[in-house]
């Protein structure tokens, strides 16, 4: 069967007012989507595999309301205590309650409302130096030269970049259409198949990574997730 061609469609969550009840509901649905994709355990495994020493500072790009990062912290905080995690998103969505939940785990979450392409300028001087960058359900928003530029930017910020994105194939597309039966709202019912169509397969992310001196790892993890890691050689 021919591979599913990659196609980017604007996701409704990206254009709705963040306070719109449909957007609020869809962000809640993302917790379910991430659970079905095993995104947190897959990202945690990739981070532990590729970040050799316990990190002090992590940057998540496209972090949304921070709930994905909070679940990561719940998995990693015992092994990686005292991490500062900067949560960059162009929408300002991280609540005080979420920040307190990080503190309870011994992590410090610092929201950074900014467009990813404002990096590194959007970072303060004290923000220089991350041990790793992570992204979940974010890179599939970009293609071509823009994706290449974004990955180039990330390569300059940390020795390790880890991403978990939708795996693009017909089985994932079929499964994404079943989310309505699990109670997902209209925005999620639109955005989930759109995300799969914009997702990755094979070594498509690696093909957009141009920075030299990195070892790249990419492949399908579980049924629905494309995992990617770029590790600077000799600097794990
Ligand atoms: C599908 S959500 C994923 C949120 C989170 N990573 C998660 O797994 O729950 C994608 C996020 O990317 C953010 N985003 C899209 N384009 C962006 C950009 N150019 N700069 C910063 N954030 C962006 C959106 O605001 C949204 O919160």
UniProtKB/TrEMBL annotation:
One of its GO terms (biological process) is methylation. SUPFAM superfamilies: S-adenosyl-L-methionine-dependent methyltransferases (SSF53335). Residues 58-151 form the Methyltransferase domain. Keywords: Methyltransferase, Transferase. GO terms for molecular function: methyltransferase activity. InterPro entries: Methyltransf_25, SAM-dependent_MTases_sf. It comes from the Bacteria. Pfam families: Methyltransf_25 (PF13649). This is Methyltransferase domain-containing protein. It comes from Aureimonas jatrophae. The lineage of its organism: Bacteria, Pseudomonadati, Pseudomonadota, Alphaproteobacteria, Hyphomicrobiales.
């Amino acid at each position: 069967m021919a591979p599913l061609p990659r196609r980017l469609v604007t996701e409704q969550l990206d254009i709705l007012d963040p306070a719109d009840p449909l957007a609020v509901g869809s962000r809640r649905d993302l917790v379910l989507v991430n659970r079905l994709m095993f995104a947190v355990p897959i990202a945690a495994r990739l981070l532990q595999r590729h970040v050799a020493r316990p990190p002090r500072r992590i940057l998540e790009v496209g972090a949304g309301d921070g709930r994905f990062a909070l679940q990561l912290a719940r998995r990693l905080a015992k092994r990686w205590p005292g991490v500062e995690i900067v949560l960059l998103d162009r929408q300002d969505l991280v609540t005080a309650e979420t920040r307190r939940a990080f503190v309870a785990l011994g992590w410090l979450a610092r929201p950074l409302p900014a467009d990813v392409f404002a990096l590194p300028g959007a970072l303060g001087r004290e923000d220089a130096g991350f041990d790793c960058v992570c992204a979940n359900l974010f890179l599939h928003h970009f293609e071509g030269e823009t994706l290449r530029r974004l990955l180039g930017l990330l390569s300059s910020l940390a020795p390790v970049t880890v991403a978990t994105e939708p795996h693009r194939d017909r089985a994932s597309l079929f499964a994404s259409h079943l989310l309505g039966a699990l109670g997902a709202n209209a925005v999620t019912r639109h955005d989930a198949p759109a995300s799969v169509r914009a997702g990755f397969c094979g070594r498509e992310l690696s093909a957009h990574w141009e920075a030299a001196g990195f070892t790249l790892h990419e492949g399908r993890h579980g049924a629905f997730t494309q995992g990617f890691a770029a590790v600077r050689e000799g600097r794990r």
